[in-house]
Amino acid sequence: MYLRGLRRPQTTRDDENCVVDRCRGHPLSTTVVLIHQGPPWTERGNHHDAPLQQSGSRRGAGLSPGDAAGLRSRHPDPAGQLAPQPAAGALSAPAVPAVTGSDLSEVRATIIDVPRWDDAPLVGRADELARLLAHVERAESGRSTAVLLAGDAGVGKTRLLDELTSRAAARGVRVLIGHCVDLGDVGLPYLPFVDLLRPVAADPDLAPNAAANPVLAALFAGRPVFFPPVQPVPEGRDLSRPLPHRAAPQPVEDGRLQLFESVAALICELASSGPLLIVLEDLHWADRSSRDLLRYLLARLSDEPVAVVASYRADDLHRRHPLRPLLAELVRLPGVERLDLSPLPDADVGALVRRLAAAAGSLPDSVVEDVVARAEGNAFYAEELVAAGLHGEALPMALTDVLLARVEQRSPAAQQVLRVAGVAGRRVRHELVAAVGGLGDGDLETALAEVVHHHLLVVSDDGRYRFRHALLREAVLVDLLPGERVRLHAAIAAYLARVPGAGTAAERAHHARESNDLPGAFTASLEAAAAAGGVGAPAEQLQHLEAVLALWSAVPDAAERAGRDQAALLLETAAAARTVGEPHRAVALLRSALEVLGPDADPEARARVHYTLAQAMVRVEDDAGAYRESAAAMALVPAQPPSKVRTWAAATHARMSYSVGRNDEADAAADEALAAADALGFDGAWADIAVTQLRARPGTDPAAARARLDEALTRARRSGNVEVEMRVLFNLASFTFEVGRIDEALDWTRRGTRRARDLGVEWSYYPAELRHLHVTALYMAGDWDASLAEADELARVPEMSAHVRADGLLVLVGRGDPRARERIDWARGLIPRLRAHVLLDLVTAGSEIDLAAWEGDAQTAVDVALTASRRIREVWSDDHLGVLRLAGTALAPVGDAAAAARRDHDPAAEERWLRAGQELVAAARSSVDVYRGLYGDTMGVEALAWLARVEAEAARLEGKAAPELWRAAVDAFEFGHVYEQARSRWRLAEALLASDDRATAAAEARAAHDVAVRLAAEPLRIAVEGLARRGRLDIGVAAARSADASVVLTPREAEVLSLLAQGRTNRQIGSELYISEKTASVHVSNIIAKLGASGRTEAVAIASQRGMLP
After folding, report:
1. Are 1032 and 1009 in contact (CB under 8 A)?
2. Which of 710-719, 758-767, 885-894, 1063-1072 has the lowest mean pLDDT?
3. Calpha distance 882→843 (Å, rounded)
4. Can you identify the CATH homologous superfamily of domain 126-343?
5. Which has the closest alpha carbon to 203: 227, 181, 169, 176?
């Protein structure tokens, strides 16, 4: 390999096979013989057309000019230890043993140096390269982008990526490369990302914040991260010790959001100093955690100068391959493109073959034609056929035959090296080959030199050997006899177990399984599970634990090796399954634990499994079954004396009883759990149970509830239980929000977010919910700019996107922003997939109703309100008070339509709208009746305000002014909902004007107008000014500006206006004019704005007065 970090050395040629480099003046100056693997010396980054440097790395030009060599991307290092990089100006240690010309074996002395395809200029991929470079240019312009590069094995993905990285580096783009590795069924978690980020994260100049991030530091060091998703099961048979109780849904996704966001922040930090190209190779081998992280990053990155290119073998993706659903999801993301690398055309293959052959001899035209025909566009196959043809051999038909023919030409020692390397993996350390290969030092050195020279193995930057192509390794493995393969796996497993740091537990487990060493595989899989859980990779943890369970009966001393019995292991595996989002699997594992324990087992052990099973069954929506399991746990353990298991059983039973409506039984269980937790000093448990009881019983006196929450916060902090502390902080914020103290709620959301950030758990479940509540509270308080900015910022975190982007809808609709329609369509598309997200449904439907109301589209408002109300009742319950908001908003356009029908003396239309409005009123009152039947008079202030709005709209529906009802609505929203109070004032002014109280009407209209102007709520401003103009009210502005008589409509708008006058809905307008409903909605909004109307009905009236209608 070439020496790095020096000026160009003086080079002389001692024989035709070796290059002797003498570096004069260096303190380590010696004669080092290097196997010549490529073109003459080229300086890294010299010119974008220069061939890639053919050192041991595939990425000779993998950095931007001027970057330190140590920052170049490394190849995967499963052991977690990168080889140290040389200091600037120092020689790298030679990756192959130094030999002199006289030491060359007879075999090596007669080798024909066959150029590889990498050495030749890129052929036939101009279009694909241009598309990839276009993505780099997009990143350079500050936009994130991604390409999924698909192609069959050997088609040329790596060569194309070589060219891309070389050219990107020449443009000043920093290039980072990570590789996925094939390790059987269970991969090494996050390997490609650790591979590409660990070197740069260690540089304080490039990533000053990375070293201070404990999550990243732990990930790159292979230590447990701060918030492991699954707690370890205690040693021994003590099943009575409970797992930490999850008081609410698991953290977003599976608890890894903090890790994912830390990686995203590091990438953004790196990109802040210049554009970044991230290359992930062999994605078909990626572990699940890496796939999840890639999904997160591609959704998260948007306005950063980052391009991501991920390659994978298309021919490896069988129907059930786990990468398939991810690819289908990724291509739907904005900025993500799939690029299929098809086989090369015959003309390009011919050009490639002639260039390769010309470098080391020549081939007759007949042989070239034969190679082209057989290669079928596969560049790697063509290369190997050329190598065979240059040796004068008859060309075999199959690629495997070609590859094996190349292997069989090597010496027996070289073939043994290839066999060891093939079984060890695609990359292997020199020490392992030496220990396992059974060769003497001299034979080993010669054999290694031979296989490197013949391009069967190449040397990576970290000093490991790797196969030149995965297909070559696969051919070597296919040719191994079963007994030979087993013996090599056994020798490798023994070496990895004997030498500390030589490999990971996952690698040891793999080799032990393949060598039929079941006890060794059992122990290594346990260690691999612990390691995966420690770095936040629950999917891999689950796979390793299930591998242990599968081996349990085959390992006589399984319990002694595991340090726990089978039931305890089943419990731990179930916890991993729950964490990774496989609740049905968790339920099955826990049922197996009960069977393993049997009816005569320790009652506390069985109780623990029962209440854990209850928690799991809630996840599969079997509340009745969960109640039965928690009741079974309670029956197994006595209440006295207090015990840990009984405490958690009672806490779980309280929750399950509340969920099935057995409130008295739930209260008794919660009281018992509180008393026991207090007696045992379980402060964290006490705080958690106290919050559960408060949330389930909303009738608690507010002062008493606040006092209980304050005590819970004190106890949670004293216990050191971070998750419970975050739960209490969230509930303090939501409690003050629900009682109408919005400013205090904002104070708690800020305090909770700061605390979460200090603790390093900003993106776990409750802190994320605090951020969401903060957005909502800002909206209510009338700080719309801050609310929208926060929503847009949080929406960049994929797991927050559905919640918070929906919240942003409220501001967009309130301001009449044309982006509202598009965002509504986006959010509406998520509802079927996220049915449990009631808040998403409620906010989306409410925004769609509001938009329809401002456009005067009463039918759409009614349809959306009733559909969403039914859906919320199905998913949640009949007492969900969100129905009040839907009805209160939808009644506004219905009341307008009924009033217009009365003015037009159209009793049929009036009756139709009355029936529609009465159905909405009935739905709202029904939800209130159900709620009060369950919880008494405990409705929150916002629900009471919306109920007041519903009652006022019900009177307006029937043509009654009812200013006293509108006054009640204004007063009800006084708690802090600035916008809805202003809307109620507008309607109150309208009612007062109808009652001939002009002075008070003007005052209310003026107050509503002031708020509308301050919030930039254009639809409300226009509506209030329209009322002032019609009623000649003095609101302090020139209302005439809303009645510009010089309004000119476009021809299309005139057509839409004509259909509006006929009572058509947006959908009907779109159908008649052959335009989309969305386009029709835009035209309607433009007409309303131009005419200064408050809605469709008023727009038609104004147009009629001005003679604008036919």
Report:
1. no
2. 758-767
3. 9
4. P-loop containing nucleotide triphosphate hydrolases (3.40.50.300)
5. 176
